[in-house]
Amino acid sequence: MRKGLSHSARSAMFAPLDQIGRAEAVTARLVDAITLGLLADSEQLPSEAELAAQFGVSTVTVREALVALRQQGLVETRRGRGGGSFVKTPANPSTASWRERLRTVSLSELRDVGDHYLAIAGAAAKLAAERSSPEDIERLELATEDIRIATGTEASRAERQFHLEVAAAAQSPRLTREEVQLQSERGGLLWLPLEPQGTRENAYAEHRAITAAIAQGDGELARKLTEEHILEAIDRLADVHLDLLAP
Questions:
Q1: For residue 60, what are the contacts with CB-CB under 8 A and spacing of at least 6?
Q2: Cα–Cα dist 41/2, whole Å
Q3: Where does the HTH gntR-type domain start and stop, copy by copy (predicted)?
Q4: Is residue 179 within 8 Å of 167, Cβ to Cβ?
Q5: What does the pLDDT look like over 183-201, one tens digit per residue?
């Protein structure tokens, strides 16, 4: 599968933090970058000084965050020539763990997160149709192809990366950060790898239609198709959630 995301999406991830000097905030931002695929496996992180400048924190704070990431197994540090801190993409969790995660969420919470995500993703798709560059369209087409060939948790990651690309194509750093935040919190539940047989083919067709609408500059159609796509995901997860709670 294609690795990494657009420069706009990555820039949003490394934007200065609202609360200065908190190692926990730096850790959380980098965990999101790794688990959402903004940073590829084995990719070298910027130096401590560069990270500190990008986040607007001290090098001591960055160092503390890197220690936490190493303890979580998400980063490894190599010494000597060509050394530094390198990303370690986490192993794919089992379907059982995803189901347990879904079981702990109430139906009302799932609907609420879905409503929030609906607003963000719909607005991003509309703006992407109005502002995207040819390079943005190319990345969306590649992201759509990733969905066609991916399976299991890779399909889940491809789905999430597609929507990050749409947000980045909207040329709105705030929308991109909102997309990242939603995906790293409960919003990621929308794309858990729990789809029944045949759903992947439907998702591929839906993403092709969204990408085509954005490429044609039809903002209203892009928004409509995106909202329908997300509503289907919410309904599908609600059904799985109810099945998990059934005696």
A1: none
A2: 12
A3: 20-90
A4: yes
A5: 766 656 777 765 554 566 7
